[in-house]
Amino acid sequence: MIESRHERRFVHLVLLGASVIALYPFVSILLLALNPPGKRVSGFTIPSTISFENFTLAWQRGGFAQALFSSAVVAITVVTASVAFSILAGYAFATMRFPLRNTLFVILLAGLMLPYEALIVPLYFDFRSLGLLDSRWAVILPQIGFSVSFGTFWMRTAFWAQSGGSLVEAAELDGANTWDILRRVLLPVSGPAIMSLSALLFLFAWNDFLLALVLLPQNEAAQTAPLALSFFAGLRRGGEPSTIAAAALLVAFPVLIVYIVMQRRFIQGITTGATKG
Amino acid sequence: MAYLYLLPAFAFFAVFAVAPLAHAFKLSFYEWNGITDQVWVGLDNYVTVFTDPKVRAALWNSVLLIVFYAVLPICIALVVVGLMARVRIRGRTAFRAVLFVPTILPLTVVAVAWRWVYAPDGPLNFGLDLIGLDFVSRAWLGDFTFALPSLGMVGTWVTFGLVFVLFAAGVQKIPPELYESARLDGANMVREFFAVTLPALRGEITVALILTVTAALRNFDLVFVMTRGGPGTNTEVPSMFIYRSVFQIRSIGLGAAIGVILMLELLAVNLAVLWYRRRGDLSA
After folding, report:
1. Is B32 inside any structural domain?
2. Chain A neighbours among B 127-156 (CB < 8 Å)?
3. What ipTM score was computed for the predicted complex, to two decimals?
4. Which of A93, A151, A259, B10 is deepest in the core (most CB within 10 A)?
C-alpha cells in the first residue's frame, strides 16, 4: 500500500480527535460528579480531591437502588422471553416449509418499522382498562412484542448459516425430530449469535425511556433507571448538577459494563445485522 | 407443527404490536379526553395535525433534525472512512470501540451529560471564554436560534458512532486490488473516494440512512430531558406531542393521529430508501 507518513499521521489525528469528542461529554460528567457536592465547578476543572459523596446522595435521594433493580428485572425478563421466542420462530422460518411462510415473515418483519411512539397512546388505555398500568408487566410485555420481530429475523439468519449443513442432514437421516435437531444440533453451534442478540436486546430494554414514562406514571417502586434519572434531573430536587451527573453515571454503568465485556459482539452484531437487513 | 414454533412470537407480536396499531387507527378518528364518551369526528384530527401551527412546527422540526441525525453524521463518516481507506490504521478496533460508545449509552444519560456541556456555566461556554470567544457563549438550550441546532448536534454525536462502525466494516470488505488499480490509473485521494469507496458503500449508506432518519423522526428522550420542547415551541417534536396528548392536552385522538402520521412517515422513508437502492442495483 502506498502511503505517506504525513497522511498516516493526519488520519490518526482525525480519529484521535473524534474519539476525544465521543468520550468528552461522558468524561465531563464524571469529573463533575467526583467533586464534593456544592463545590462550584465550571468548565474543565479536574477535581483536586476525589469525593464519592455525589454518588451516595444520588443513590439515597433518587431511589436508584430500587430503580436499578427494577430495570434489571425488566431487561432480564424481556431478553429471556424474546430470545426464547425468537429462537423458536427463527428456527421454523429457517428450516421448515409451510403455507403462508413468506407472508407471515413479511408481516413480522414489518414490525421493525413500527415506532413505539405510535403505539404508546393505545397501550396506555389498554393497560389502564386491564389494570396493568404501573406494573412492570406494562413495560415488559410490549417490549417482548416489539423485540420478536428483530430477534426472529436474527435467529433465522443464524440458523440458515448452520442448517442445510451436513450436521442437520445427518440428524434427519437418523430420524431425529425437529425439536431434537434444534436442541442437539443447532443450539450448541449458535451460541455466538444468541449472545449477540441477547446483548443487543438488553441494550434496547435497558435504555428504553418512553414506555416506562407513559406506562409507569405513578408507581415509584416499578420505575426503571432511565425514568428515575429523568425525574431526578427534571424536578431539581436532585439540586446540584454534580449530584445529577452522579445519578446519570449510575444509570449508565450497567450498560457500559455489558458493552466493555461484549464489545466485539455488539459491533459485529450491529454490522452484520444491519447489512443483512 | 411449524406453527407451534411460531406461536409464542406471533402471539406477543399480535397482542402488543398489531392490536395497539389497529387501536391507534381507531382512536385517531375520535375525539376523546380519556374519560367521557368517545365522539366520532372523521378526519378532524388529521386536519388538525396539518393545520395547527404547534403540531406543524413539531413535524417541521423533526424534518430539520434529519439534517443533524442523518445527513451530517453520514457525510462526516464518509470523509473519515475515505481517509482511512488509504492507510493502515493502528488500533483500528480500539478506535471503533471508543467511537461507538455514544450509540450505546441510554439517551437519558446522554441528555444529562450534554445539558451540562451546554449549561451557562458548563464546559462549552468555559472553553469559548478561554479562547476569547466569550461573545459566542450563551445559554445554548434556552436560545431561540440555537436550541434546535444544539439539540441536533447531540443527535449527530449519538448517531455518528453507529454510522462510522457500519462504514468502517464496509470499507474493510473492499478488495485492495480496486485501490491498487485506481492508483495505477493515477487517481488521487478524492477521485479514489468517488470511484472506489463511495460506490462500494452503497449498501451501508442505505442502512445508515434508514436507521438515522428513523432516530431523527422518533426522537423523544433527548427533547424530554434537555428542553421539554422549549424555548417556546422551538424544539417541539411529534413524539412530545403524543406524550402531551395523553398527559396534558387530554386530546387522545390527536395523539393517536400524530402517531399514525409518524408511522406512515417512517414507512415512506423506508420504502423510498429501499426502492432507490433496488433501482440503483439494477442500473449498476
Report:
1. no
2. 127, 130
3. 0.92
4. A151
